[in-house]
Amino acid sequence: MQFAYANPCSERDYLQYGEVLFNNTNSTSLVGKSVVFREHISAVCSNHVTRLLVKDDIEPEFVETVLNMLQRKGYFARLCTNFNNQAGINTTTLSSVRLPIPPESEREKLVAAMDSARAERRAKLAEADALLAGIDDFLLDALGIAAPAEDTRRVFAVRGQFAANRIDPHFHSPDFARIGEMLSQVHCEPLGKLATLSKETWNPRDHEQPTFRYIEISTVSPQTGEAHWNEVLASEAPSRARMQVRADDIIVSLTRPHHGSIAHLGPEFNGCIASTGFAVIRGVAEYVSREYLWCALRAKFCLQQMRQRASGGNYPAITESELENVLIPVPDAETQGYVADEIGRRREEARRLRAEAEAGWEGAKRWFEVQLLDTAKMVR
After folding, report:
1. Are 361 and 123 contacting, i.e. CB atoms less than 8 angstroms apart?
2. What is the pTM of this model?
């Protein structure tokens, strides 16, 4: 849940430490999500959140866990009414909700067990994040690239001959020049020389099946580079569902490319349809491993080049021709294999840790529910 730093307002408007914040408006699948406010800041929240001040003899963490349990069970969705074109639950209805409240000793055991499960989940997720966060440093080390000192200048000048192709100040930022300095230490080639972009398109009118598998930009994880598809009715195909993809293609988001929504598609994606918001890399030079190319494209030094070459305000995008100018380090085959294998190992380990974290947390929530129903009595 997001909190906003408050402008000057009355004392009662500020969130109080230990309050339970209840999401009262949104889609029915989100109404009821709750969290204890544990921040030492002056903050306010929107009217989409109901503030619950829990009685002194009840633990806020217990109330938070019970509310989230009821939310997952769809209890609050059944209480929702529609106002202002959004599903919501008003304070009168919320006040009438009865919560199961076991004896204090049992509540303390339940809260302690959930705190322990939550801490274990956070530790595994942090370990997974650390594995992925270290990939850029590993890649630079494997390629023999030394990162120069950061350049944080806000004012800079560019000589005329260096601004012939692009005159926007953003393109010539010292931070981007630093990327060029880094890559000058090793052999690099532009993406357009290493790979070809597919122009194969798809037309829903020619599709014989009632549905198709559609890959949107939002279904490619920026954090892991994993792609997913949604099953979509051919009769309701979005206008951007036009790019035919094949197994072993690499798809690169052209919108906000620096976010890293870049996936290497496995055989299960053969025949899927991707948004025209992707560039589809199909042909790759023989001396470049596809796995290595995917890893390099997702590296910060490539994402920053994409950010440099993008244009636009709220939705910066890069053209395919500019994408082809992104420089890719090209080491020998042995180094490419070593990089791809190690990054693959880290990603697989991070995936395992995340799966374990979520499975453990889901198990803890099921345990909490069983224990609660065994020991609780219903009170207002």
Report:
1. no
2. 0.78
